[in-house]
Amino acid sequence: MASFTQPTWSYETHDRSLSNSPSATRDRLWNHDDRPVAGHHAALVVDRNDEHVVGRQLSRRLACCRSKHHLPGVESWFDAILGSVGSLMEINPSKVSAWRNAISTLNPAYFALVMATGIVSVACHLMDLRLISQALFYVNIGAFLVLVILSTVRMVAFPRELFTDLMDHKRGVGFFTTVAACCVLGVQFLSIAKLPDVSIVLWGVGVALWFVLTYIIFTSFAVKQTKPSLAEGIHGGWLVSVVAAQAVSLLGGMLAERFGAYREIAIFFSLTMWLGGGMLYIWIISLIFYRYSFFPMSATEMSPPYWINMGAMAISTLAGVSLISLTEDSPILIQVLPFAKGFSLMFWATATWWIPMLVTLGVWRHGYMRVALTYDPQYWSIVFPLGMYTVCTYRLANELDLPFLLPISHLFIYIALVAWTLTFTAMMRSFWRMRRLT
What we know:
This protein has helices at 22-31, 54-69, 73-88, 93-104, 112-126, 130-157, 159-166, 176-191, 196-223, 230-233, 240-255, 263-294, 308-324, 331-335, 337-368, 380-399, 406-437.
């Protein structure tokens, strides 16, 4: 019997060196340690015409795993449900295994898809591309709901894998994309759909997630005894924690008028989140730049998440400009207005500085070092900064009366749209190819 080994959905490959761990042993049992011949379908039966026995075969495998390795109750029930569904719908067992693998290893940073789609939609709305903006808005709602469902199933059925990711230096920071996704979608509901009540709910969820994730993830990094080296542990994806903080600040500032008597409290909270996010960027980018300059770096390590170096500064600019727009009736903001203007401009200048650097590194990676351009979820980490740079430049030009910056926004909106289209098309082709292989 052969099985099919599914491609991982992660930015980084899990360390499978601990081959004697219970999870590794269960994975070997699930996959039978066989590797299929490329292009051939995997099956759990000798005769391809006997696929109606899928349910019985899968049930026996699950029973074997449960009896010998004591799977957690919820996980074993989830496996049993998958087996029953596969049997009732006469689904190829390799597809059932693929579903299980995809959910258990779901990349926590996949919410970058929602972040990217949302901000490109907002950019189109600002540039009067209303039809495209509306279409992307509905696509984003669907993507968000699918990811929420998959993440919830993973949390319930595979808590061990989820908490392992949460404590991992490479994958743990990816959970911050859920915070940014909630807030970016909230911006869409506020500016495009004109539904502030939905935006308030999403902002509340984002704030709660930010508090929980920030202090669980960074505390676990501090107290864990086994830690990677700086070169192995740090990467551009760490700056998603900055993006999350600034997304909370952005949406909070935009919703401040909706809080009535609590307006100043909302503005103060958004201001502190903006300042804290800026400080967090300084800490993390110092480590990233040090890693850039003093440690060897292969072409594969120079991955798309490093574009968040720019994206974190772009959303910091936008959050700052949004606060500046509230200054007229806010005693708190009046006192810090010159400071807010200066730092917002500094954030924009830093984001602009990163663009030629990141483009050059991308040319080196794919042109000189010949790293193949194949779909990976981390490419959404390029789309989001491009869309965010479009929006922040447009808002900065209007708030600080810098009309000569507007042509940059009108150029970058098309760059962001092309990047989104290419990445989304590649993602669909990847899903279709995986479906055919299974």
